Amino acid sequence: MPDERLLNLYPSLRQVSPGALDDVLQRHARHLHAPADTRLFDEGAPCQGFPLVIEGEIRVARGSPSGRLLELYRVTPGELCVLSTSCLFGERPLQAHGQTTAPTELLLLGRAGFEQLLHENAFRAYVFGIFADRLADLMSLAEAVAFQRLDRRLAHALLGHGAVVAATHQSLADELGTVREIVTRLLKRFEQAGWVRLGRERIELADAAALRALAAGEDA
Questions:
Q1: Band of residue 141 on the pLDDT scale cut at 50, 70, 90
Q2: Complete edge-to-edge strand list for the sheet that includes strand 164-165
Q3: Is there a contact between 58 and 100 (Cβ–Cβ < 8 Å)?
Q4: Res. 143: pLDDT tops 70
Q5: What's the pTM?
Q6: In three state form, how does the secondary structure of the chain look?
Q7: How far is CA 212 from CA 10, 36, 195, in A?
Q8: How far is the CA of 188 from the CAs of 91, 150, 191, 192, 195, in angstroms?
Q9: 59-115 residue pLDDT tens
Q10: Residues of the chain with CATH 2.60.120.10
Q11: Class of 148-215 in CATH
Q12: Which end of the chain has fewer beta carbons closer than 10 Å to its terminal beta carbon, N or C?
């Protein structure tokens, strides 16, 4: 019988006939537990399956030959990895890597199980709905990288986490697709302006209103 947590997180599975779902889970699924910072898949590797996240988080990012990273999106419980979806559809190698950011529990559907579930109308509609949402997110990311100033993107990244952001300069650089030195330089500029106070793996927002104005496109 399917895990009730899985059905609550992915309610479209409730609309799959019980016999068909049991068959997929028994024959074509693996239950995995991975600690934080576990590399689940690599760029250029064949897709091993379709992950359904029950607990934890997977960060999907693309690297460059120079070592820079660009975070594409994160997969949390109840969400889908569109990279895995597209690779299973097109039978192509993965175009980015995925790594857990916290202890993660997931169910990995093999290609045959994924294709079997796609014959179910509810699951197919869910997959394509999430695919469309993620595509819109990636278009927004591409627009931000191409057209928005990095200081505005950094201000936006700092907001929404409360008064204190627990992050390293390197992790912010990875999220923004740049290098640590540039993030450090911008954060020091923010500190000199009185907008933040910097500590070890800690950034305290001293003037969130100023950061919000910058993120909205208003020059300081």
A1: low
A2: 164-165, 202-205, 196-199
A3: yes
A4: no
A5: 0.64
A6: CCCHHHHHHCHHHHHCCHHHHHHHHHHHEEEEEECCCCEEECCCCCCCCEEEEEECCEEEEEECCCCCEEEEEEECCCCCCHHHHHHHHHCCCCCCEEEECCCEEEEEECHHHHHHHHCCHHHHHHHHHHHHHHHHHHHHHHHHHHHCCHHHHHHHHHCCCCCEECCCHHHHHHHHCCCHHHHHHHHHHHHHCCCEEEECCEEEECCHHHHHHHHCCCCC
A7: 34, 31, 10
A8: 46, 14, 5, 6, 10
A9: 998 876 666 677 888 899 998 888 888 888 777 888 899 999 999 999 999 999 999
A10: 4-145
A11: mainly alpha
A12: N
Query: Mind listing the pLDDT tens digit for each residue in 199-220?
Result: 988 999 999 999 999 888 765 5
Single-letter residue type at 16: V
d(CA 42, CA 111) in angstroms, rounded, equals: 18
The CATH superfamily label for domain 4-145 reads Jelly Rolls (2.60.120.10)
